[in-house]
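# nightly structure sweep
# worker-07 picked up a monomer target from the shared queue
# config: single-sequence mode, recycle default, output format = structure tokens
# input follows
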Amino acid sequence: MKKWMVGLVVAVLWGVTLTAAGAARSSYTYYPYGDEGDVTAATTYGVNLMGGSTDVDEAMRWMAEKANGGDFVILRTSGSDGYNQYLYDLAADNQSPLNSVETILLKSRNAAYENVVLDKVKNAEAVFFAGGDQFLYVDYIEGTPLEDVLNSRIQKGIPIGGTSAGLAIQGDFVYDAQNGTVYSDEALADPYNRYMTFSRNFLENRYLANTITDSHFEQRDRMGRLVGFLSRNLLDGWTTEAKGIAVNEQTALLIEADGSARVAVQPGGTNQSVYLAKATSQPSNVSPLSISNVNVIKLENGDTIDMTDWANHTGFSYQLDAVNGVLRSSSGSIYGN
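# output follows
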């Protein structure tokens, strides 16, 4: 082969390589902090359900302790490396230093097939989903090798969690907001309106079967839409016992491997509660919504609950009904006492 032909072939092959590498870079951005070398550590399972706004330091320290000096991976679909130094320093200050904190910004579904992304998550001792847009998490990860790796790590017993949109994807059922957010009055007026879009069987977290999760709860007056979510899960035949966990801002529900859970809050916040709601009766009317006997447990800072059956808890119990699209509470307030 003539030299110019060899050069042309090499140039073409090099161009293909560059194109492939460029695609990889364009589908994700990797931000390392700490030691980039992998370590293996024995972890303890747990789920951190955080409601958005300012992160709960206690909840993040709790996850870092369970990571046991390993590598802590942050997944996100917007933003950059804001968690890296914060979490690394927080863990060190708590005498539970991490080997590294690594943020992976997913830019497209292609990222969920990239070996670098898969290897980082496969070797993670903790995974946390940042806030943003929950539909992008579902769109980018559902049905990909990354979903398989995440669920494999959960089964291996690493701590996992998320805040805001990252919380919204933790349950067995997911309000994915494909068409944009839905408001309480819209969900109560018609639980089949175009904004009520759902996914299921995404992450396989323990104690969250038949459960949907929501964030920014009281701050954005989302009780009506939670009742709408539970009603849809019943109406669509997904379950005969629809459950929901809704978390206020600057608040976290921390679920241990044995199913015990407690509420932690960020000092200085207001309206820092967690709501667990359960519905078993089919709605008597769909539009506007009428459903009876939605049982609610309100937990506040330091309250505990057994997530295996929701029977043993230190919270406040009351009942909600929706009557022709209007919520009524046995306590006088839809947000409890």
